[in-house]
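Practice problem: predict the structure.
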Amino acid sequence: MTTPLPETDSPAPARAPAVLSRGTRCWQFLVLTLLLVAADQASKLYAVQAWKGMPTQSFFFDVFRIEYAQNDGAFLSMLSGASGGLRFFVLQVLNGAVLVGIAVSLLWPRTVSAWTFYSLTLIVAGGIGNLIDRVQYEYVIDFLNLGLGSLRTGIFNIADMAITLGFFLMLPAMLQKEPRLSTTDSESSPNSPRRNSDDAPLAFASSLSTPPGS
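Answer:
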């Protein structure tokens, strides 16, 4: 009589990340970008009409401030003292080219992971919102500020919030390292992980030192 071996629980297979088809990405990218850009531009129009020239308004024990500002530089006013030609090239021409590159890398591949798509769409939408300001006014309208005492953020807007959120959502994927496989191993193992089109947008964005459009 043979004694049956005790059953052992096999480890559950790794769950593959959700991917979005090209058609789904196209309409969702269009809708999300239009909504975010519209909200950003509407809030800036209100800021100009209601808060331009007004003193700083403080709320919630000075944690939240309304403080109208015009930033003719980049993130944290970088390049604000540069010549007009340099600012035009970096903040409009180069910035616009980067945004187009990210958008193409999001929409062109056959499949892209949902996490990568949504995080980079936030960055592109925020970048477009600030780029509209630079083309129209040659500066970006900011009006929000957070902090405690002397420890405060810079003055920002809704577009900056979208860029920052997208960047932080993208960080885990950027920091995750895949194990390298030799050519022999990758050819001999049919189930070995392979780099595919899902990685293209993330690889492009990872090559940028700072989020665009801030």
